[in-house]
Predict the structure of Aminotransferase class I/classII large domain-containing protein.
Amino acid sequence: MAVMTALGSISSLLAVGRKPAKDERIAIFSDALNHASIIDGIRLIERQQEAVVFVYKHCDMSHLDFLLSSCSIEKKVVVTDSLFSMDGDFAPLPELVELRRKYGFLLVIDDAHGTLVCGDNGGGVPELLECESGIDISVGTLSKAAGCQGGFVACR
């Protein structure tokens, strides 16, 4: 939630004392089955008129590609869980990285269920799927595999 609100506040900071115009906002593209904390953060920045939100069908890269190609907003962020806890499936991170190269968006993943569990070194789903270098921001928790409190936000 904190990462999403921080990203959304960028458009307000750039607007300097006024609400950002629609074309100055950030476009957020969110997987339909993202964790509630991501959705709550997105709802907050949407209410504050800092972002325009697009929800793409779960793991549907064709739908995301269509939405990205139809969006005229310059600043784009795609956010997804890396491992969806309710369904147990992985986000198609390699395909997301390819779309990132095509459209130049910021790729944010919530790797709470993959950190220290997936990958040879516990590097999470990006390590498992061999696409770490294509992830811009990774959010994780220490309360699952590490068995303690806290979390982290890591970037390239």
